[in-house]
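---------- Forwarded message ----------

FYI, see the Tetratricopeptide repeat protein record below. Original note from H. follows.
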Amino acid sequence: MRKLIVIALVLSLGASVGCFAARSSKKTKGQDDVAADSLANLEASKYLSVGLDFFKKEQYEEAIEYYQKALDEYPNHYNTMVSMAVTYQKMNDINQMIDWYRKLYTVYPDSLKGYLGLGGAFLKYSSMEPVYIDSALIMYQKGLELFPEESDFYYGVAEVYIKQGRVDEADSVFIKGLEKNPENWGLVNAYVNYLMERERYQDALSWQEKLVQAQDEDPFATEKLGDLYLELDRLSDAVDAFRKSVELLEENYTAWIKLGSTLMRQKEYSEAEATFETITDKFEDKLLPHLYLGIVYLNWGREGSAEKKFNYVLSEDSEYADAHYYLGVIYVRKATKAANETTKEAWQRGCANARTATNHLERAKSIDPRNASRVNSQIEHLNKVRDVLKEKLFLVGITDC
């Protein structure tokens, strides 16, 4: 949740757009001035409302056109300035984003969103220009002085400390923020991510359980709960969490995959098979569920079904490294089985299987070098099997293997 602070401002864009206006340096206004001011504010709010409709449709250029019309009617219209900054962020135009947050901060120096937004903009920009990390910290710390109860500022300070390598300080800042507001679920999510990155899974779990209890209709929070259960080897709890996640959002592809693979880890092969078959039906363009279904069959001892699945994957994508690897494993098993038989025909068949295994394994490694370790382990075993086959065939006058 690295973008928590700036993105959080998006959530407020649809809120009442007419209640903020530029402050006048005059202490009093005549009735005519007040009426004109109110009318301009109303017209600006109308244009802003249209712009926000375009924003929701991700038509950002059109949104900006209407924001500009709002500002033509009422310069320094607060919510329009916020909307400008957030929209440029969504367009990944960092310079414009920073410019608009600067304007907001300049015109409204006591604005919470100005401090949060400019701090977030500097934090984002610091990935390209590291010098901005100090500016981000200054904005967050100033924001905390003005708004000590606003827990989002603690997130910002913690993120700065993480980037600076001040990990222990970041942890304490997260805790202070959560002490201020233990129900800031965005901050909780960020802290859980922080803990997971440092493999502090038990600590992360206690916070994630609170988050899911509060947001029990959030499929992604429930999925992350399943991830934590997996890390702690609580497989049954993980299955329950992933199952709940896909019930909440049937199109949550990653949760479906995790559900099936966890069932496979439990050796619940029948349930795993049914789950992956469901996934292949729901996500027809995905090959990974077919691969996993093959692995289920392989672990289940149904090598014929597994081989068909891996061949299907390769028929759709001949460069699918994992399918080559698992086909190689099947042929290693076939060669091993042949070496234990008693006929020269079986031994010759074993040699042929060994050659096929080698081809698939080497292909898996050449396509994806990350397969090297497990491929080399299979090849090492296969070479021993081939030596046995060669010896047996040599004794019956056959030297080709």
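H. also flagged this: Residues 31-56 form the longest helix (26 residues).
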